């Protein structure tokens, strides 16, 4: 019977050598410098330097059949990464974003031991993203965050600051719908459930994920508050419950009879993000609104309209769940409250 030796690439610059027990093969593998037997996995391990077929043939000559396999180490790195993300209780969306960004790093260094890469190697990858892939600053930042997380949190390795300098943040002003456009949007949506969803998001300034996680018990009709549980950053907060919304909400709850979540799917469980996005998209088209408005536009509009109606910025910060007041201050740039009072110098020109 022909002897078969299977050699597989492992991580940490090693190879596994596997075969059915044979005294001759054991003696041969022992002659390879640096070889040792792994008692846990019951395989021989040798340095990766002996991975070429011509070198292996000197230790395992014909008629021994040599089989070389490439082990997909990427799965090992993904598994470790995912486990740490879960242990640290990152949200599902954050886990997906980090893993997706880290995938590019694994692909760039495919076939290499990721755990042995240096900060300079990481820096090389970031330069590649900017100069060759020409990614946006947002994608670049996500890539930096994902790789930094792996080195610091998964490998528990301190990193220097040089390759992890984040790009200068682009300052884009949010799209805002006027009160008239919000009114047109609500009126354009005929379905009671869909219209209620839009009204809840706008009236309370909710994020999409916060709406989906909203439960019936989170609506406090007595205190006129909505309890947002584990919002962004795992923080709880209260936001306002509109008086005009309460009647619509009660009509909706009587008609649809949700059991746990305020808005549930056809077969129970929380409503899907895609469904809410489609509701807003179709509503915007039906209302004849030309602006590129999304679910988050309703939240931006909520904050801007509060500011324009005289609500203190500090209260708006609390209602939105912003950790920093600087995040909330962006609405001062899109509010017509102050800008609307300024007269253009053209008004004073005799033309």
Q: Number of helical segments?
A: 15
Q: What is the typical, i.e. mean, pLDDT?
A: 85
SSE class: alpha+beta
Strand order of the largest sheet: 3-4-2-1-5
User: Do you know the CATH topology of the largest domain?
Assistant: hpI Integrase, Chain A
Low-pLDDT parts are none
Order of helices and strands: EEHEEHEHHHHHHHEEEHHHHHH
The count of strands amounts to 8
- The whole-angstrom Rg is 30 Å
Largest sheet: 5 strands, mixed
Estimate the strand proportion. Answer: 5-15%
Explain the layout of strands and helices.
Elements: E1 4-9, E2 14-18, H1 23-30, E3 36-38, E4 43-47, H2 53-59, E5 65-69, H3 74-87, H4 92-108, H5 119-131, H6 137-154, H7 179-188, H8 192-204, H9 208-212, E6 219-220, E7 225-228, E8 237-240, H10 243-256, H11 273-286, H12 295-308, H13 313-320, H14 325-328, H15 336-339
């Amino acid at each position: 019977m022909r002897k078969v030796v299977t050699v597989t690439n492992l991580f940490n610059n090693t190879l596994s050598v596997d075969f059915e027990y044979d005294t001759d093969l054991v003696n041969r593998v022992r002659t390879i410098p640096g070889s040792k037997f792994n008692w846990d996995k019951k395989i021989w391990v040798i340095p990766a330097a002996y991975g070429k077929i011509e070198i292996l043939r000197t230790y395992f000559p014909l008629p021994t059949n040599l089989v070389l396999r490439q082990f997909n180490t990427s799965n090992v790195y993904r598994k470790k990464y995912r486990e740490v993300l879960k242990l640290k209780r990152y949200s599902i969306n954050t886990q997906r974003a980090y893993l997706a960004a880290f995938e590019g790093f694994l692909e760039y260094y495919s076939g290499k031991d990721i755990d042995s890469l240096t900060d300079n190697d990481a820096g090389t990858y970031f330069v590649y993203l900017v100069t060759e892939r020409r990614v946006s600053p947002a994608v670049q930042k996500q890539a930096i965050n994902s790789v930094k997380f792996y080195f610091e949190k998964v490998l528990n390795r301190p990193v220097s600051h040089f390759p992890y300098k984040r790009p200068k943040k682009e300052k884009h002003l949010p799209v805002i719908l006027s009160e008239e456009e919000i009114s047109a949007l609500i009126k354009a949506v005929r379905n009671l459930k869909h219209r209620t969803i839009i009204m809840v998001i706008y009236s309370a300034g909710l994020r999409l994920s916060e709406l989906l996680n909203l439960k019936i018990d989170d609506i406090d009709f007595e205190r006129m508050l909505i309890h947002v549980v584990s919002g962004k950053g795992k923080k709880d907060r209260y936001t306002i419950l509109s008086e005009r919304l309460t009647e619509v909400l009660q009509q909706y709850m009587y008609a649809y009879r949700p059991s746990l979540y305020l808005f549930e799917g056809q077969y129970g469980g929380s409503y899907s993000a895609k469904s809410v996005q489609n509701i807003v998209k179709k509503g915007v088209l039906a209302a004849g609104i030309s602006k590129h408005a999304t679910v988050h536009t309703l939240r931006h509009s909520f904050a801007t309209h509060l500011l324009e109606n005289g609500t203190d910025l500090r209260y708006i910060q609390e209602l939105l769940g912003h950790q920093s007041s600087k995040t909330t201050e962006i609405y001062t740039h899109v509010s017509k409250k102050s800008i609307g009072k300024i007269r253009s110098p053209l008004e004073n020109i005799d033309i």
